[in-house]
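re the bet — no i am not wrong, look at it urself. input seq straight from the record:
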Amino acid sequence: MLTRPLRPLPYSGRRAQAAGLAGVVRPPCAGAAGVKLVVAAAAAGSWDRKAGRSEAVQAAAPADEKDDALPGINKLMTSTVGKSTNIRWHDCPVNQLDRQKLLNQKGCVVWITGLSGSGKSTLASALSRELHSRGNLTYVLDGDNLRHGLNKDLSFKAEDRAENIRRVFSVKNYNNVHVWFVGEVAKLFADAGLICITSLISPYKSDRSACRKLLPNSSFIEVFLNVPLEVCEERDPKGLYKLARAGKIKGFTGIDDPYETPSDCEIVIQCKVGGCPSPKSMADQVVSYLEANGFLQN
């Protein structure tokens, strides 16, 4: 394989000295990009003759090659969030209002909470189907579905429940992991202009409140499925209550772990022993709220 020897840049003699590029060579693989980088460095000035490269080249170098002592490198404002350092938020020229105008709807999160077996996933599916038939774009984040992928590393212990919520909603309270993550993802969907429907137990008030604070303009809509424990146990679609009663599942919500009833939710769907509303009627109740509060624009 033939190789091409290193060639000087098309700057030599007095021209190179004037540009501050004397002695700089271009690697054969650099191509035009390499030339542009060095020329841009010259245009920016501040050629470091001792180090052999300009501040612009230095700033473009890999992290392990940078010299923090050189001036002019840290001009961009960066921050530290959690364990992530030297990061910077980049605004997109297309914002949430633009996306909402395109979709003809307002992005929000419909957060469905309740005991296991209360009908959260059933309501989420019915609501998504109803909104889709009206021409609205939705996405459902179901607690069980998330544990098949994004949250499969989490258990149902209190600390993992907190991480579950944190991952969905960027909650800064780490007592319930699963809910945190659901919130993080849901917030992104709402920012995209979608109506994001989440269905998970999320038993702790502190986690739900933290999720609510992350969304502006009342776009967090908490829906409480108020279904008595005996009704949920009678349904027991996954047989979990029987296992919990037998002591084979520890920390099961409603049995040996608390469910903290919402006190400030937007919608309460009441179910009594011997009579519960149909999935269609529950979905209609939520749709009516969305219409009345301007989330479904014409």
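see?? Residues 8-69, 168-175 have pLDDT under 50 and may be disordered. told u. also The domain at 96-292 is CATH 3.40.50.300 (Rossmann fold). so pay up
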